[in-house]
TrEMBL record, chains A, B, C:
<dbReference type="Pfam" id="PF02729">
    <property type="entry name" value="OTCace_N"/>
</dbReference>
<comment type="function">
    <text>Catalyzes the condensation of carbamoyl phosphate and aspartate to form carbamoyl aspartate and inorganic phosphate, the committed step in the de novo pyrimidine nucleotide biosynthesis pathway.</text>
</comment>
<dbReference type="GO" id="GO:0004070">
    <property type="term" value="F:aspartate carbamoyltransferase activity"/>
</dbReference>
<feature type="domain" description="Aspartate/ornithine carbamoyltransferase carbamoyl-P binding">
    <location>
        <begin position="4"/>
        <end position="144"/>
    </location>
</feature>
<dbReference type="Pfam" id="PF00185">
    <property type="entry name" value="OTCace"/>
</dbReference>
<comment type="pathway">
    <text>Pyrimidine metabolism; UMP biosynthesis via de novo pathway; (S)-dihydroorotate from bicarbonate: step 2/3.</text>
</comment>
<dbReference type="InterPro" id="IPR006131">
    <property type="entry name" value="Asp_carbamoyltransf_Asp/Orn-bd"/>
</dbReference>
<dbReference type="GO" id="GO:0005829">
    <property type="term" value="C:cytosol"/>
</dbReference>
<feature type="domain" description="Aspartate/ornithine carbamoyltransferase Asp/Orn-binding">
    <location>
        <begin position="156"/>
        <end position="313"/>
    </location>
</feature>
<dbReference type="GO" id="GO:0044205">
    <property type="term" value="P:'de novo' UMP biosynthetic process"/>
</dbReference>
<dbReference type="InterPro" id="IPR006132">
    <property type="entry name" value="Asp/Orn_carbamoyltranf_P-bd"/>
</dbReference>
<dbReference type="GO" id="GO:0016597">
    <property type="term" value="F:amino acid binding"/>
</dbReference>
<comment type="similarity">
    <text>Belongs to the aspartate/ornithine carbamoyltransferase superfamily. ATCase family.</text>
</comment>
<dbReference type="InterPro" id="IPR036901">
    <property type="entry name" value="Asp/Orn_carbamoylTrfase_sf"/>
</dbReference>
<dbReference type="GO" id="GO:0006207">
    <property type="term" value="P:'de novo' pyrimidine nucleobase biosynthetic process"/>
</dbReference>
<dbReference type="InterPro" id="IPR006130">
    <property type="entry name" value="Asp/Orn_carbamoylTrfase"/>
</dbReference>
<protein>
    <recommendedName>
        <fullName>Aspartate carbamoyltransferase</fullName>
        <ecNumber>2.1.3.2</ecNumber>
    </recommendedName>
</protein>
Length: 343, 343, 343
């Protein structure tokens, strides 16, 4: 693995496999049944130049679980950058204070530029329309974990990606990671004008997967294993799209009726979150809350072991953790809520 | 104890007794003469959707003293909530990242709503005009601790609650807790229009306490044990109240003259803080600074052991702590300032 | 050492020597080759009422390296201060929650006022035009460390201070610290109107140093050991100064040509940072990036051991640390970047 995690493009199949394996070994610590001090004395610089509370807290918690300390920075800019400091200087200074850096920034490419000047690992926590590699990794980890539980395998699986496939960076990164694995069947359904970019369709097809494009969800999905849905943001629409969309909006909404009538009992539903729960939001319907097929909260939970694995791997301590594990005497199992139910 | 701490209403006498006993056992750790790692690896989500630096820092420090890590969030909203995410989703996601959550929010009831979706303990750090149970508990703990030191008991004690008794949520919660204990004498003094709500007066009276309402402080308080005073906020006043109030404002101000002339040598003075020290602020007078009867800073200091006890109890580790205590070789006693003097 | 660090004026030669020695012993921990838990259970209140990301992160990381926890506060004011709370009350309350406080505030003298009411050590992290003592200490530590490496000594050294010597508080504090040491030669070069205040020139001269004032950099510096340069902020200029300055601006810019033509191979370049890298910024030129004589990033790196030494000394644990040191099995040396090269 390279010394940074800036994009899923830098990840080989071996890298991804290794990360997923390490993430799996992190589960007892993520659930606080075991504790480790492997990152004792280490400091994470958690730099969020764009607000993203959940991602910030997730990285923060993951680093703490490994025994490290975290210094958060939130806001639109470094105070020193406002005084004309270059990203180069900021980056080099911060890397003298921290052992690893997570950075989220609204400008595509800025995290990579920042990473060039540091001598500590940098993780891209999202750079605007660019990349958000830890999200793609936790998505893949979730599919793998749910499949293992259900006795399924990636090879031959049928996945549906739906919603806004044009602007949703998470589906772009996820499909790249999926393409590294055994041939599967990937169905893409999006409103006209929000289709998956053709270079990504071509990439996946070129690697032996069966890719199918459909214009509507009104067909048979009885063999479906995974639905990955994203919000359709009306503000993305042109006027022309608005007209054609108004009549078909419900066609792209995943709800309980869709699962009950067109899918099967083990079709899981994923979503990168947040989802818009306001009326008329064209997003994953809340009527699936409490349904064991709704995997969205198990998915966010997986952010902790996956981000722990990213830190452990970049800091090259993944093999030290096992030697440093201890039981906690005081472990209290979390009460499971209605949306934590598995099948 | 329930799995959350949302309101003092959920607390029985046994719960409160237990919390106070645990708080007392936390003192050596709160003062950093002992250390524990009982919450090692645990993460607190400290969510302040309304600014309250002191309360945030107090919860933060209490969790750290138990060996845990804290991730603060400050600001008016979650970034994801601005995108239409429901409190349900936010809550469920956060509870996958953290082992406990403290939440302060300007809207009454919002913390309880948040708590319904989590599977980790939630502590109400103040929900607007609603509840702030940890404040009431530290107030009661302070009275109990001061009384123990002075050889007094709650039974038969005389307490004066004064200031704005209508809008001050801290006096409401405190009087509920006091009502659980042995009969005492409670005198209420407030400007007309800012009286204690009658349902609370009735509650306390129905539990066998002697409640007396007075319109002014100009009487004999020579047997008084505790003054609990709160700021009178003029912005709460109607025009009519303003007129009647202008002539009597000094009647509701606690100062050194009042203590010297009408109270006794062991009458302690409490206040929920912050107090308004600006001239003409109708708040606890600064001329008591340095007087050992002024207990307001001993009171805020008690926030640490009380909040430690809340965490320990909700996370069910209160009995593990004793087994995990260690001395610190490097303890340096704090220098006592002028306002830390006891009698 | 006093119980606070508010100003370099309170530091004797012995204090400074002790701090530098302790800082040197902190290096293995600062570089994470060793870990300590000497401040386990301790909480730092890191209060930044003025934005300064780098200083905040530096103090934060230093305290964590010693095993402590940090609670950051950022923003222009305490929420309670907005309600009329005095600095006295705020200070006393905070000192009940924390074991040490770092405070940065835009108003000169406010940190000292804050410190008067606390019973825990307070470190001035910069009070507007006032003091920033930890910066001066890390500057001196950097000179000492670079000299040791190069086989040089402070006695007889030749230092150039240049740029804005009137408003730059860092050069004022540094020159005070330097004046405590063996006689050296200090050359001051600044644009007219931005000269070093005469009382500081007199102070240094009175302690036996050779001080020379020049109006331009266009002379021989072949025996120079250190350049300490600061940004010239045009917004400081009067109209008259602007006119006279426009013709000479490049005269005060330190760049590679100046070092190559007028200095020598071991002249190191320091700067308090941030530097303004925008075109025409009258600041240290980026063409020195990658030159081993550019010590600015080694200088910021030194902020960690120096701030660790400040905490250790104020909390009186500097002799406990050695007894508590442990190796880390998992240490991964940082990759050195181009600007970390020493000679």
């Amino acid at each position: 693995m390279s010394s940074h995690l800036l994009s899923v493009d830098s990840l080989s199949r071996d890298h991804v496999d290794h990360l997923l394996r390490v993430a799996s070994r992190m589960e007892p610590i993520a659930q606080r049944r075991k504790v480790t001090r492997v990152l004792e004395g280490a400091v994470l610089g958690n730099l969020f130049f764009e607000a993203s509370t959940r991602t910030r807290v997730s990285f923060h918690a993951a680093f703490c679980r490994l025994g490290g300390s975290v210094c958060d920075t939130t806001g639109f800019t470094f105070s020193s950058m406002a005084k004309g400091e270059s990203l180069y200087d900021t980056s080099r200074v911060m890397s003298g204070y921290c052992d690893a850096i997570v950075m989220r920034h609204p400008d595509q490419g800025s995290v990579a530029e920042f990473a060039q000047a540091t001598n500590v690992p940098v993780i891209n926590g999202g750079d605007g329309p660019g990349e958000h590699p830890s999200q793609a990794l936790l998505d893949l980890y979730t599919i793998d974990k749910e499949f293992t539980r259900l006795g399924k395998t990636l090879a031959g699986a049928h996945l549906l990606l739906t919603g806004d496939l044009k602007y949703g960076r998470t589906v772009h990164s996820l499909i790249k990671l999926l393409s590294l694995y055994a041939p599967m069947r990937i169905t893409l359904v999006s409103p006209p004008g929000l289709e998956m970019p053709s270079h990504l369709v071509d990439l996946v097809a070129s690697r032996g997967h069966r890719v199918e494009l459909r214009e509507s969800l009104a067909s048979d999905f009885s063999d479906l294993d995974v639905i990955y849905t994203t919000r359709i943001q009306k503000e993305r629409f042109t006027e022309e799209m608005m007209e054609s969309f108004s009549g078909v909006s419900q066609d792209f909404t995943i709800d309980r009726a869709f699962l009950d009538q067109r899918c099967n009992d083990t079709t899981i539903v994923m979503h990168p979150l947040p989802r818009d729960s306001r009326p008329g939001a064209n997003d994953l319907n809340v009527d699936l809350n409490g349904d064991p097929r709704l995997a969205i909260f198990r998915q966010t939970d997986n952010g902790i072991p996956v981000r722990m694995a990213i830190f452990a791997t970049l800091l090259e301590v993944e093999d030290q953790i096992e030697k440093d594990l201890r039981d906690v005497r005081w472990f209290v199992p979390r009460k499971l809520g209605v949306d934590d139910r598995e099948f």
